[in-house]
């Protein structure tokens, strides 16, 4: 049995999220069906973590154990020819038998993209949340810094979470701006990158929904530390739309 | 009557091209329907030129004459709220009564994008032709230079063309490479930009289909001038897939 590890990129627009569901139409269902078509094996794959319906992945990591003898270098192309065009295996490698895509992960990075131009970009509309009014990025940066470190993130977690602990560590969080020109100070793209040891349900989207209220001037950046302390989901902003979110990188 | 000029961006994936058709589902049909909903006027809009089914536009230009009194600054948002999300009015302005989006155009630029990475980019798959084998870009540049100037482009024109003259001028043609890293000399994106005073049916796509054969080493770059002289469509390469093509800019 080999333990195969693959980097997977997907456009989540058409899917009910990563994790397998009775109704099907998930990324996991499609990949497992492609593996079964290719090898005849019914295998449950493991991912670095689920992504919600509509959320994308630049580099999701999966692993699974197989007794198939297909050479390593043939796996990506063989699976891609059996997958829909919005899911692609970017790379395949082998790992120690102990490697586990979720448990072995050391840090994960998500990116959330906000387009602040007056009119959305038709070509990237499935990847960008359109917010055509000015956001105070410096205030958002200030607010974001309050989240760095080990905290109980209950305030920024769906109330449906069943996790026994909401303590997670954010190693790094930053905002990168992409302006079309130096003059266009109130337009362009805002990318929010958050890197942590793990994320709770809707955590990045609730953080971004709250940051947008800070950017709009509806909240003071100093509130961020206060509501984090309170461990109360009601004190945070709304859950930002799924389509702006992308699983960016997983480090092992 | 005001003569309104608008810059329109569209993702052509779902449409049967720009120009109105009895079957509907064209960019023109959607824009005219939105204008009628907004103003009650049934107006035929003029564009800088049709684009084929599946071809995109970053900045198509349209104009139309209207007696509507809606203030200029409200048009873009008012039409966008009545258009599907893959068609956006980027900007509206007024022009002299004589301005005509096609006849007044001085130069148009098209971009064709080829992705030479091993695996396609799921997020840009609707905008990039995937060609996962190495292309000799220097040979393609050499071949492309033969097209600059005023020529009869019958070789690079659909045999279905009904145009009385196939003489057009290409002012500029260049290839811009986007590499992910200096080391990845056989992967990345290749953008072919072609600027001319007008384009024949399938002209850019046939040019690119021929350039790809040059890039693959199936043709010598010096053939380009020879087949251009011959005015024979059969001597050129295949018509490249529509989805890699985008109307980039129109200059007046």
UniProtKB/TrEMBL annotation, chains A, B:
Q: Which PANTHER family match?
A: PSEUDOURIDYLATE SYNTHASE, TRNA PSEUDOURIDINE SYNTHASE-LIKE 1
The catalysed reaction is: uridine(38/39/40) in tRNA = pseudouridine(38/39/40) in tRNA
Q: Which InterPro entries does the record cross-reference, listed alphabetically?
A: PsdUridine_synth_cat_dom_sf, PsdUridine_synth_TruA, PsdUridine_synth_TruA_a/b_dom, PsdUridine_synth_TruA_C, TruA/RsuA/RluB/E/F_N
Gene3D superfamilies on file: Pseudouridine synthase I, catalytic domain, C-terminal subdomain (3.30.70.660), Pseudouridine synthase I, catalytic domain, N-terminal subdomain (3.30.70.580)
Outline what the protein does.
Answer: Formation of pseudouridine at positions 38, 39 and 40 in the anticodon stem and loop of transfer RNAs.
GO MF terms held by the record = RNA binding; tRNA pseudouridine(38-40) synthase activity
**Name of the molecule in the record:** tRNA pseudouridine synthase A
**Family named by the database record:** Belongs to the tRNA pseudouridine synthase TruA family.
Which species expresses this protein natively?
Paenibacillus flagellatus
């Amino acid at each position: 049995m080999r333990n195969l590890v693959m980097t997977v990129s997907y456009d989540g627009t058409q899917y009910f999220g990563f994790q397998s569901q009775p109704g099907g139409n998930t990324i996991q269902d499609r990949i497992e069906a492609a593996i079964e078509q290719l090898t005849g094996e019914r295998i449950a794959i493991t991912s670095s973590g689920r992504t919600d319906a509509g959320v994308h992945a630049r580099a999701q990591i999966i692993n699974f154990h197989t007794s198939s003898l297909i050479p390593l270098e043939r796996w990506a192309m063989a699976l891609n020819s059996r997958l829909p065009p919005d899911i692609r295996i970017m790379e395949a490698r082998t790992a120690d038998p102990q490697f586990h895509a979720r448990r072995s992960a050391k840090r994960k990075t998500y990116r959330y993209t906000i387009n602040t131009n007056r009119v959305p970009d038709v070509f990237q509309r499935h990847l960008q949340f359109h917010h055509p009014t000015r956001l105070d990025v410096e205030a958002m940066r200030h607010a974001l810094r309050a989240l760095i470190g080990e905290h109980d993130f209950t305030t920024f977690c769906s109330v449906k979470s069943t996790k026994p602990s909401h303590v997670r560590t954010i190693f790094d969080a930053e905002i990168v701006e992409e302006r079309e020109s130096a003059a266009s100070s109130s337009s362009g793209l805002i990318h929010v990158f958050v890197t942590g040891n793990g994320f709770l349900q809707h955590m990045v989207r609730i953080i971004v929904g709250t940051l947008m209220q800070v950017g709009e001037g509806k909240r003071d950046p100093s509130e961020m530390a206060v509501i984090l302390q309170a461990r109360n989901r009601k004190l945070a902003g709304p859950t930002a739309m799924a389509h702006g979110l992308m699983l960016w990188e997983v480090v092992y």
